[in-house]
């Protein structure tokens, strides 16, 4: 028994294809909770690293001043600022950025993330401090405001630099600088600003 002939296809009739919606890549979704937790941890470690390095640089600078000859020209204030604040700040930001890189994923280039954060963050901090020379506080409220401004400026610069790298691999990367600025400015103002303020007036 022969099969019934199939009707010929109409070549002029268009065919339609509805593409399926692509599934979201879970690896590109930010882990906000992990980011906040890591920022808290890194902030605590930075509060230990930075003052230790500052004290070490101050001692080295004091030893150099004592060993220098009376005819030798004194060190400039700019050099002292770079040595006492710039070097500890660079090392601290470098170490902090390296720890934070571990939570954003291997897709982000580590060298660009860490080096750019440390270099730009240190330059921004030194530029801000140079405009405040000589740093004097007529009241502790001025000190608290200074701490707030310093953390806000530095964390904004570093957060922006890191966002430039993070946006290449993670969706909603704009959340990173907001968390960075909020966490570091808030924690820094509360602990180093109001904390020391409270210790002095206790």
Give structural notes.
The protein is mainly α. The chain has one domain. Helix content is 69%, strand content 0%. Helix 1 runs antiparallel to helix 2 and helix 2 packs antiparallel against helix 3. The longest helix is centred in the first third of the chain and has 36 residues. The chain starts with 31 loop residues before the first helix and ends with a helix. About 3% of the residues have low confidence.
Rg, rounded, reads 27 Å
Structural class: mainly alpha
Number of domains: 1
Regions with little confidence, pLDDT below 50 for 5+ residues: 21-26
Keywords: Membrane, Transmembrane, Transmembrane helix
Region (Disordered): 1-20
Biased composition (Pro residues): 1-11
Transmembrane segments: 36-61, 81-101, 113-131, 143-164, 176-201
Which short descriptors sum up this protein?
globular; 202 residues; 5 helices; 69% helix; mainly alpha
Write the topology of this structure:
Elements: H1 32-67, H2 77-104, H3 110-131, H4 140-166, H5 175-201
Transmembrane segments: 36-61, 81-101, 113-131, 143-164, 176-201
Region (Disordered): 1-20
Keywords: Membrane, Transmembrane, Transmembrane helix
């Amino acid at each position: 028994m022969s099969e019934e002939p199939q009707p010929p296809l109409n070549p002029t009739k268009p065919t339609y294809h509805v593409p399926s919606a692509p599934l979201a890549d879970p690896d590109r979704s930010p882990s906000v909770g992990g980011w906040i937790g890591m920022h808290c941890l890194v902030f605590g470690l930075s509060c230990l690293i930075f003052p230790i390095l500052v004290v070490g640089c101050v001692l080295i600078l004091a030893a150099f001043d004592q060993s220098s000859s009376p005819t030798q020209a004194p060190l400039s204030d700019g050099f002292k600022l770079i040595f006492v604040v710039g070097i500890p700040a660079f090392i601290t930001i470098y170490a902090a950025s390296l720890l934070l890189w571990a939570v954003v994923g291997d897709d982000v280039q580590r060298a660009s993330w860490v080096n750019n954060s440390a270099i730009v963050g240190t330059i921004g901090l030194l530029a801000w401090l140079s405009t405040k020379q000589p740093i004097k506080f007529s009241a502790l409220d001025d000190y608290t405001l200074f701490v707030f401004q310093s953390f806000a400026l530095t964390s904004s610069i570093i957060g922006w630099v890191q966002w430039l790298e993070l946006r290449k691999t993670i969706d909603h990367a704009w959340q990173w600088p907001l968390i960075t600025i909020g966490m570091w400015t808030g924690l820094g103002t509360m602990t180093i600003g109001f904390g020391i303020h409270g210790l002095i007036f206790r």
